[in-house]
Structure formats: structure tokens, C-alpha cells
Specification:
The structure holds 2 protein chains of 2 kinds. By secondary structure, chain A is mainly β. Chain A has one domain: Lipoprotein localisation LolA/LolB/LppX (outer membrane lipoprotein receptor (LolB), chain A, Clam). Chain A contains 3 helices and 13 strands; from the N terminus they run αββββββββαβββββα. Chain A has a 13-stranded antiparallel β-sheet. Chain A is globular. The two termini of chain A are 20 Å apart. The longest helix of chain B has 16 residues. Chain B is mostly beta strands. Helix content of chain B is 11%, strand content 45%. Chain B has an 18-stranded antiparallel barrel. The chains are: A mainly beta, B mainly beta. At the A-B interface, β1, β2, β6, α2 and β9 of A face α2, α3 and β12 of B.
Chain lengths: 272, 507
């Protein structure tokens, strides 16, 4: 495992699979694509939160591997802190990953990885976020909040997904640097009009002519906050499925009593 | 590979003839290294250059211009269901205050070259290791967030029975054939909100080095088969009492090392035992008394984009030294003096700086109290400097380079002779590249380590592959090639090239 931010794992680990305040829905039909994405970004995250994440990796022949994670998150205003503890498989147990995701444009995240086999915490330096997260179809970029100013958004049309009205929005990175760091050259997002959750997306990968399909299969409202509880991410080439990841969130607890002292190297080394 | 080929100055523990006359130039392995790396970087692993990536980006971006609505509609149909569905989740695990975990592995090594390391040892060639290894660990959750761990390890190597136990020295059989021991045994918790205590057998890993050790001096290493010891087993736990006080961005550690334990180095008769060391000498380890307690302290700060650490230790040198004049008279007969461990003082500092995809690392240590056979009346100081860099800018790939120089203050040419075997400057270099394939199922690692400006003190290259058959079950193998050095211990490694296989199940 290597670097890359993982800030929004607890929120459904999807491309801005997010929420906004219900009040924001008023007058939604007049919004531009950029304004819609801003409202997707300005969601209530149930800060701080604790979520158990189960990630099933399925290869094209159907063989499965399972990763279980307990994710802790806190938003301290401009910056977000995330601490992940790996619960399984056994050879990854007690591995921990800490991210300080800074809101300031151009400022790299701080990341540390605790390796129980070495009894060592390593600082990770990686502005490249295109790598696979734990062997899944999610990249580190998929799990990180994106700087909206780095993208051009176009409202393509209104359509329906699962019986709900959605906006279909095209998202194109403005710079080669952003493409290089995220590994994605373009995305199309489907944002539900009633709650501003991105329920589907397709991303064009820069290498190999591959496409990544994200779909929220189960969406729940917990403590007034919408969250995807089952999310599928599938990597395809043409109509062939190359690999798939199914992510399930459970034991979701928002507004927990966690302070910033929990999101430290000290806690990584102490363990859960 | 971190320990066996790294770290300390390399000295023998028995008098032998001067080795300067043996010093000779060998054809360095740098050509082989370069070839391997070139293949790795340009062929097999196909890591693209930045220029190639830019060209590819332009091509991909241009492709959007031709994309028609029909193509997009076809793409969006890709959300339709496929046959790949996850298995149903198992029942919730039962919450208990205890948990047993561990690893079971089977590993084997096969020596590629037949040779007989002197004196009187076995013929090494073919099967040299067939080891079943079990690690068991019990973790206990105690009241008030305290916790305890009791872990142990045992292995049995059947290669010695297969090859004939009588062919091996007693020392080799003692060290390599089987073992059973407690590894980590500790109690851990918070005494106050900002004050933690950890007491018992444990590992404390200091420093920033990816391969070499400069300030990381507290735990001895398992060097029995250099380059092939599992990373989990590389550092040997010792009994310590460790207090950590946290304030702001800083962590102050105070440590008392209550157990004297030294590295498991190759035994007399092993093919890794340097011939310059003769028959070996008995080692007189410091007694396990309160007065011999080792002390250490660290002050480490973690900041936005960088880290800083300061370290101090009063400890025993891991490598034993031969006491001058080496022999003493007992009832008219010359009896060799046992080797001793010098009491050292270390003052050191470390730093990390993250810059985009680059991590710059540094360590500096001043070590005083070194004693040498050829300088019996004087203690000597050494300055160790490590400079390292990591690069993570290639997808799923990690690259690290470590450079270390160890400089002896007031060095004299006699220190190059047996049994000291130390140069004024000992240069060490390590290059590591790791890449994950097949959605993190296949892991490839290349590690090249060299000693000396022209690799005259030896080198080693390991290419290894690990494949996850399924969760917690992996198989792997690789090749480890050595080039002998002019000085011990790598002087013994020249014909020790081997291939290895391993299967590991974690539970």
C-alpha cells in the first residue's frame, strides 16, 4: 500500500458521493453545473464519524478477496483528518494509515503509514493519486475531495437513475498535471436532484483505454445524513469487466466524540 | 535485507593475518545492477517516462473530440449488471477481550554453487534450508484501555536432517536447526492523558533509513541468513521500559533497556561465516544486572510536511571486539580471551521532508566509545551520515535510495588489519524498487546493496516476487546473488548465491 489521500472513505468512498443540506435544494433547477458540484462538495459530513468498511475485490474470473477497515474522520474546518485501521486480512491487521487533507490549493496532503511488522511509522510523500487503493478499483484520487477549480463542469442533460431525477454532468480536468495525478481524463457524473448525491459516475482512465463505473447500490439516510452503504466500482475495457470492487459501509456513527488528538502518529502506533 | 548487510562496521572476532595484501580489484557488479534495473524500468515493468505519458495524454485528450453521442450512450450502458457479485457477508465476529493470531510459513533455499567454507564445515550446495516456521500471538484487551501481548516463535529446519546432521558444526546446528522462544511480551497503556508506558520485550524502531541503520541501535538483528530473514523477524525484541510523553507536536521517549541481547550472526561453520575469523572465540556478554542497563532517549516532532528527531543512547555495541592481545596465559598455556562488547554513547538526529512525490531523508549520528584491537589504549569516535530519497510518482511503484558513510575519527591503517577490519570511510549504498501488479496481488521487489566506493567490500542483489493466492495466503520466491567483499563479513559470501521459495499463511 502506498500514499494517496483517503479523506472521504466514510462518506461512501465514491467520486463525491456526497450530500448537501436540504435547504440547498430550493431553486435547484436554475443551478449551473459548477454550482451543483459546489453543493455536492458542501455537504454535511456528520463530523466526526466512525464507519466500518468492508471491501470485496473481485477479479474477472470471480475470485474474491476481502479487506475490512475501520475509518475515523474529522473535519477541522479547512482541513480534514482521516485515520484508517485495517482489520483484515490477517497479514494487514493493525496496519494504519493517517491522512491530513489540506484544503489549501497546491498544498500536498500529509500521510503516514504504520507498519506493524516493522513497528515503524513511515511518512508517505505522494502527490500522485492514481494508484490503486489496497488493490481495489478505487484510486486514492477517488477517495479524496477534489479542488473544483481544477475542473470544467458542463451540465449535459437531466435524466433519471433508479426512478430519481438526476443531472448528468461532464467533468474535465483543466490541467495535464491534474490528469497525471488523478489518472482520469474525464468523468461523467449523475447527481440526484433531491439530495445532491452522486449516485453514478463513469471515468475515463488515461492509460489502457479503460473505464471505471461507480454506482451506489444502496443509499441510506442516517441521523439525517445521506450515505452510500453499498457502492460498486467496476473497471472495464470495452464491454469486458476487468475487475470489480464492492464496498459496504456498516456501523455508521456520526457526530462522535473524537478530538484531534486521536488523529496522530501516537494513536496509529497504539492501535485500536 | 535491512539488517544483515547493513549497519555496523564489520570486524572479526579472532586474530588472523593482515588482509591488506588481499585487497584486490574485482569486476564490480554495477554492470549487472544496471542491466537488471534497466530491464525492470524499461522492459518487464514498463514504467513509462514522463515524456511518454505526456504524449499519451495528448492522444487521449484528442480522442474526446471524435466521440459521438452514440459512443457515449454505449459507454453509459456499461452500468448494467454483470455476473461478479460478492459473497454474502459472514456473521458479525464475536467481540472478545482476547485474540489469537499468527503465521505459518514454509521456506526453502537452494544454493546455486557448491563450495565448502573452511574449516571442516559441510559441503554447501543444493538444499540449504527447508524450514517450517510458526509465529503465535495472543493479544489481550485489559481494563482502562491497557493491553498486553504474548508472542512466541518456533521453527524447525529439516534440511540438516536431509543433508546429514553430522556434516554440520555444532554451532550451526544450535543456531539454524530449530528454535523456540518468546518474542514480544509486553504490557502497554496510558499512565496519564499524555503519558504512555510500555514495558516488556518489544521492538523500538528508530530512524528514517529504508535499508540501513544509523540511529536505530536498540534492537539486535537476526542475521542468520543475510538478506533472507522475514522483515517481521528481522529485529529481535528485548526487554525495555519505555515512557512516552506527548506535548504539542512532540513525543519525548525515555527508555531503559533491561535485557542484554545481541544479534544472531552467522555461526562458525555456516557458509556466511567469514574465514578470517578462524575458529571463532567465545563471547562474553555483559551480565544481566541493573548496572548494565542501557539507556536511551528520543525527542521526535511531526510537522506539516516534515519531521525532526533527536536521539541519545548509552548502550552496548552489538558487534563483539577482540580484547588485546587476544590471548592470556593459563597454567603455561595460551588461552584466547573472550570477545567483549564496548559501551557506546550515541548522539543523533533525523529528518524527513516531503516534497510532492519525493521524500528526502537524513540521519546523522556521533558514536563514541568504540574500542579496537589495534588501538587498545584509546576509545574512538565514529560519525555516521545517511542520506536517502524515496520517489512515489510512478503508479503503484515505490523507489528508494539510501547512501551511508561511516567515518572513523583518528583512523590508522592498522585498523584495516584483522581482527578490526575497518576503513576510515565505509560507504554503503542501497537501491530498492517495488511495484504492485494485478490489483495488488503480485508484488515485485528489486533490492541492490553495495559496500565500498567501487563495491570492493561486497554487494548483493535480490529480486523477489510475492503472489497473493487468496486473502492471507501468499507464495513467493526469488534469487539472491552475492559478490564477495575484501573485508568480513562479506568476504565469505562470494559463492553463496541462492534461489528461495516461501509460502505463508496468516491467521
Amino acid at each position: 500500500m502506498r500514499g494517496g489521500a483517503v479523506r472521504t472513505l466514510w462518506m461512501g468512498i465514491a467520486l463525491a458521493a456526497a450530500l448537501v443540506l436540504p435547504a440547498a435544494i430550493a431553486g435547484a433547477e436554475d443551478l449551473t453545473a459548477r454550482e451543483i458540484m459546489q453543493r455536492v462538495e458542501d455537504r454535511d459530513e456528520g463530523n466526526p464519524s466512525i464507519i466500518d468498511v468492508e471491501m470485496t475485490l473481485i477479479d474477472k474470473s470471480g475470485k474474491q478477496r476481502l479487506r475490512e477497515i475501520r475509518a475515523f474522520g474529522i473535519d477541522r474546518g479547512e482541513d480534514e483528518l482521516q485515520l484508517l485501521f485495517f482489520l483484515s486480512p490477517a497479514d494487514l491487521k493493525d496496519t494504519a494509515f493517517l491522512t491530513y487533507d489540506y484544503d489549501e490549493s497546491g498544498k500536498d496532503d500529509d500521510q503516514w503509514l504504520y507498519l506493524p511488522a516493522l513497528k515503524k511509522t513511515k511518512r508517505i510523500a505522494s502527490s500522485d493519486r492514481s494508484g490503486s487503493f489496497m488493490g481495489s478499483d478505487f484510486s486514492y484520487a477517488d477517495l479524496t475531495s477534489r479542488d473544483l477549480d481544477q475542473y470544467d463542469y458542463t451540465l449535459m442533460k437531466e435524466t433519471e437513475v433508479g426512478g430519481f431525477k438526476v443531472w448528468q454532468i461532464e467533468s474535465v480536468p483543466r490541467t495535464k498535471q491534474e490528469i497525471k495525478e488523478t489518472g482520469t481524463t474525464k468523468s461523467i457524473l449523475f447527481v440526484r436532484q433531491d439530495n445532491y448525491v452522486v449516485v453514478r459516475s463513469v471515468g475515463w482512465l488515461k492509460r489502457g483505454g479503460q473505464l471505471k463505473y461507480m454506482e451506489i447500490q444502496a443509499l441510506e439516510q442516517i441521523d439525517g445524513i445521506w450515505i452510500g452503504t453499498e457502492i460498486h466500482m467496476t473497471t472495464k475495457k470495452g464491454d469486458k469487466t476487468l475487475h470489480k470492487t464492492v464496498l459496504r459501509n456498516s456501523n455508521i456513527r456520526f457526530h462522535q466524540e473524537l478530538d484531534e488528538d486521536f488523529f496522530t502518529v501516537r494513536q496509529m502506533e497504539k492501535g485500536l | 535485507m535491512a539488517g544483515p548487510l547493513s549497519g555496523c562496521d564489520r570486524r572479526g572476532d579472532a586474530a588472523a593475518s593482515p588482509v591488506r595484501s588481499r585487497l584486490r580489484r574485482r569486476r564490480p557488479w554495477s554492470v549487472l545492477w544496471a542491466g537488471l534495473l534497466a530491464a525492470l524500468l524499461t522492459g518487464t515493468l514498463a514504467i513509462p517516462t514522463v515524456a511518454a505519458e505526456d504524449a499519451e495524454l495528448d492522444e487521449v485528450l484528442a480522442g474526446f473530440d471524435d466521440e459521438g453521442d452514440q459512443g457515449l450512450e454505449e459507454i453509459l450502458e456499461g452500468f448494467e449488471e454483470d455476473d461478479l457479485e460478492p459473497a454474502e457477508s459472514e456473521d458479525e465476529p464475536v467481540s472478545r477481550f482476547w485474540r489469537i493470531s499468527g503465521e505459518l510459513s514454509l521456506g526453502s533455499s537452494y544454493n546455486l554453487l557448491s563450495h565448502r567454507p573452511p574449516p571442516g564445515s559441510a559441503q554447501y550446495g543444493g538444499l540449504s534450508r527447508l524450514r517450517a516456521d510458526l509465529n503465535l500471538q495472543l493479544d489481550l484487551e485489559l481494563p482502562r484501555s491497557w493491553r498486553a501481548r504474548i508472542a512466541g516463535r518456533g521453527f524447525y529446519d529439516s534440511a540438516y536432517r536431509i543433508r546429514g546432521r553430522g556434516n554440520y558444526t555444532e554451532e550451526v546446528l544450535d543456531l539454524y536447526e530449530w528454535t523456540a522462544e518468546f518474542t514480544e511480551v509486553y504490557l502497554q497503556g496510558s499512565l496519564l492523558r499524555d503519558l504512555d508506558l510500555k514495558i516488556g520485550r518489544q521492538v523500538v524502531n528508530w530512524g528514517t533509513g529504508e535499508t540501513f541503520r544509523v540511529v536505530d541501535v536498540l534492537n539486535p538483528l537476526d542475521n542468520r541468513e543475510p538478506g533472507l530473514v522475514d522483515i517481521e523477524d528481522l529485529r529481535l525484541p528485548v526487554v525495555m521500559t519505555k515512557l512516552d510523553y506527548y506535548f504539542g507536536d512532540w513525543d519525548l521517549s525515555l527508555i531503559a533497556v533491561n535485557e542484554r541481547r545481541f544479534s544472531d550472526d552467522p555461526a562458525f561453520g555456516s557458509d556466511f561465516f567469514p574465514p578470517e575469523m578462524g575458529l571463532g572465540l567465545p563471547d562474553q556478554e555483559p551480565a544481566q544486572t541493573l548496572g548494565n542497563t542501557e539507556w536511551a532517549a528520543a525527542l521526535r516532532g511531526v510537522f506539516e510536511g516534515w519531521d525532526l528527531g533527536f536521539f541519545a543512547a548509552r548502550y552496548y555495541e552489538d558487534l563483539p571486539r577482540v580484547e588485546y592481545p587476544g590471548f592470556t596465559l593459563v597454567r603455561g598455556a595460551l588461552v584466547p580471551l573472550p570477545t567483549q562488547h564496548s559501551r557506546l554513547t550515541l548522539l543523533g538526529s533525523t529528518a524527513n521532508v516531503a516534497l510532492g512525490n519525493w521524500l528526502l531523508r537524513g540521519e546523522l549520528a556521533y558514536i563514541d566509545g568504540l574500542e579496537y584491537f589495534h588501538r587498545p589504549d584509546r576509545e574512538t569516535a565514529r560519525v555516521d551520515l545517511l542520506v536517502g530519497v524515496d520517489y512515489s510518482g510512478f503508479t503503484d511503484t515505490f523507489i528508494a535510495l539510501d547512501l551511508v558513510n561511516r567515518w572513523i575519527d583518528g583512523w590508522e591503517s592498522s585498523l584495516l588489519d584483522a581482527p578490526d577490519f575497518v576503513r576510515r570511510n565505509s560507504l554503503e549504498v542501497a537501491f530498492r524498487i517495488q511495484r504492485d501488479f494485478l490489483q495488488d496481488r503480485l508484488h515485485v521487489t528489486l533490492l541492490a546493496v553495495g559496500f565500498g566506493r567501487n563495491l570492493e567490500d561486497g554487494s548483493a542483489v535480490r529480486l523477489g516476487v510475492d503472489y497473493d493466492l487468496r486473502d492471507a495466503l501468499s507464495i513467493g520466491g526469488g534469487v539472491l546473488l552475492y559478490q564477495a567483499g575484501d573485508l568480513p563479513p562479506l568476504s565469505a559470501y562470494g559463492r553463496n548465491d541462492r534461489v528461495y521459495l516461501q509460502a505463508k499463511y496468516s491467521f
